[in-house]
Amino acid sequence: MNILAFSTTTTAATATFQRPQPISAVSKQPLSSFHQRKITHPMPPEKHQVFKSLESWASKSILPLIKPVNRCWQPNEFLPDSTGLTNNFMDEVRTLRDRTIRLPDEYFVALVGDMITEEILPTYQSTVNACDAIRDEIGASPNPWATWLRSWAAEENRHSDLLKTYLYLSGRVDMLMIEKTIQNLIGAGMDVGWNNNPYLMYVYASFQERATFVSHGNTARLAKEGGDPILARICGTIAADEKRHENVYVRIVEKLLEVDPNETMLAIGKMMRKKITMPGHLMHDGQDPHLFQHFSFVTSRIGVYTGDDYMEILDFLIGQWRLEKLEGLTGDGRREQEYVCGLPTRGRKLLEQANERAMKMDPKGLKFSWIFNREVNV
Ligand SMILES: [Fe+2]
Ligand SMILES: [Fe+2]
Is 35 annotated among the ligand-binding residues? Predict the structure, then answer.
């Protein structure tokens, strides 16, 4: 679920992988410098009214997309029954372990990184809630923006619960190192550049939900090809949630473009200029100082999340928001419109050049603590 490594290939986990050439969106600067960053894109105070005026629209158009709890799936439905009622628990665990046996180590690196990214939910929720004009001031506000945020977090919470339990039962990964990574990550936080500005945040969330939809869809496909149809169903089910979340955020940005095209276009331009960095970008296991980048190499190499995917998401959003035909822009808005609409073409040229360079490089082995320091090729 990361977009930092631009891939040379989108093919599945086969022997034809080529080493990806990264175009890094995460600087190698020490983490402390992230914490010294100043807020660079505050929302102008007069824009608060835009979100206030959209509250009844959000109640009618966004809140119906929350699925009632009794219609939602729960992790327990996909896991071996531990209650003792069926007496099948041990057999079901053995079957689960047999199913995962043919999945390669690199698949587990990708799945662990995806799961860890879901684990940063507390940071994600609190960072969204810090945004101006939409924040939940009391913790249980009936405001539609706040209601959506809490329900979204409650839905997301199931993703990591299910994936983490499944990984634990598989016996294929080092849970201790994974747990340390999660604790480090939640302690480190995230800094993806929306700076309390809800325009930027909703643009980011649109991209990121689509990226998770793509990524979980690809881990589903690879699980199926690798002989685990249940894991495929799990990843596919999570991907379907992400798709519904994507619809919500895309719809909010669409509405903002309608009522405030110039400010929204500026926000899209600002987020795309920063490049969209995934929420888990500060993950650290206490061993590998470039863990997120290395995880990105793997997801890129096995086709879970690639540079091509990044470009396709850009194409999708540009089309969905009809940015090429957007009207009502002033000079700076038009400049950002031109910049964003030209991004996929420019990005694909960069990808091509990266592919050519990568073809000339020898494969390199990387060790991951999550799989007991075994090495995978990138
Ligand atoms: Fe998720
Ligand atoms: Fe999501």
Answer: no
